Amino acid sequence: MRRLPVYIVVDTSESMFGEPIDQINRSLDLMLASLHRNPYALETAWLSIITFDSIARALVPLTDISEFKIPELKARPGTALGTALELLRVQIAKEVEPATETEKGDWRPIVFLLTDGQPTDSWRPALEKLRAQRPKPANIYAIACGSAVDFDVLKEIADVTFRASEATPDMLSKLFIWMSSAIQSVSKNASQNGLSADDLKTPDGIEIVGDEYPDPPEDPPQLFFHGVCATTRKPYLMRLKYVPYGSGVYFPDASFPVPDDFFIDGGYTPPEISSERIVAMPPCPYCSNEDWCSCPRCGTGFCFNHEKSHEQGFVVCPECEARLLERPEGEEGEPFSMRPSAG
Ligand SMILES: [Zn+2]
Ligand SMILES: [Zn+2]
């Protein structure tokens, strides 16, 4: 039996944190259930899930649908697309049976690449290696979610690029239902050509990007910052939203508790932003402290209680224990540069 290998490569960067990643987890569950009900898919399709943030992981290697166990996807900082493409190449070389003189081998794998951001590593060498691999590895279908995507990158990587306006739960749900039916259709009409013209018909809100590739915005639509709670000493993630006011500012949007091992250094340093463009930080998700400061000694951002520290006359950095003096009431500080997270 010739297998149809399907690789789902998912961007699990910080911008996917919360609702989007929860929805992807639910959607994968539904996708598997619907593939299980389809005799063609059950017979032909093999599935792999690769995720990428600061690092890329083959979360599930290429597996027969009937034995596939849904993993739990987690969001983390970074968008290491190059590392993901290299891992994809290695996995395809290892897992897909090539055609030989006597055997037909597997069908050409199809790849769905789901991303909502801009790469934080170098991706071109990995793409060149992937493209040079023989037999030709795959049709790549890229799905760009939201407005922060670098379409110039996807244009080079993908055979077909789709665009969804936002990575909302509803949109992600529709996207996975569409992918699921495309996989079923390709399983039935297995060919070397991947998705047929009919399969390329996407639900409302998800469209094929033609020759006109939109430019990425000058200012990212969202910014992420890391914080440490001064009360509980636990890490959290803050999300700020761009508002086109004046030269563009960022308003507090949400904050999330994150696991202790959430923040990993992927080697990428995002550009700094002036504190003048940050209207405020979201409150701490652990203790609801609304004040926030950045330690001038170790650079850690942390929540603090303004009233309490005003009484004491100082705040203590939860990371390096530095005692930072409170500014006298009413005195405005100089603007300073802030380093967001890799996003
Ligand atoms: Zn706190
Ligand atoms: Zn410090």
Structural features, described:
There is one protein chain. This protein has 343 residues and is α/β, with parallel strands linked by helices. The chain has two domains: 4-208, von Willebrand factor, type A domain (Rossmann fold); 222-338, no CATH class. Helix content is 24%, strand content 26%. It has helices at 19-36, 39-44, 81-95, 124-132, 151-157, 169-188, 306-312; strands at 4-11, 45-52, 56-64, 110-115, 139-145, 160-164, 206-208, 222-228, 235-243, 249-257, 273-274, 291-294, 301-304, 314-316, 323-325, 337-338. The strands form five sheets. Strands 3-2-1-4-5-6-7 form a seven-stranded mixed sheet, with helices on both faces. Strand 14 and strand 15 form a beta hairpin. Helix 1 (19-36) runs parallel beside helix 6 (169-188) and helix 3 runs parallel beside helix 4 (124-132). The longest helix is centred in the middle third of the chain and has 20 residues, at 169-188. The protein starts with a strand and ends in a 5-residue tail after the last strand. The relative contact order is 0.14. The model has no long low-confidence stretch (mean pLDDT 90). Residues 295, 297-298, 300, 317, 319-320, 322 line the site of one zinc ion.
Provide the descriptors you would attach to this structure in a database record:
343 residues, alpha/beta, 2 domains, seven-stranded mixed β-sheet, three-stranded antiparallel β-sheet, 7 helices, binds zinc ion
Question: Beta-strand level of the residues, as a percent range?
Answer: 25-35%
Enumerate the spans where pLDDT stays under 50 for 5 or more consecutive residues: none
Radius of gyration: 23 Å
Count up the domains.
2
User: Helix share of residues?
Assistant: 10-25%
CATH superfamily of the largest domain: von Willebrand factor, type A domain
Give the biggest sheet: 7 strands, mixed
Broad shape: elongated
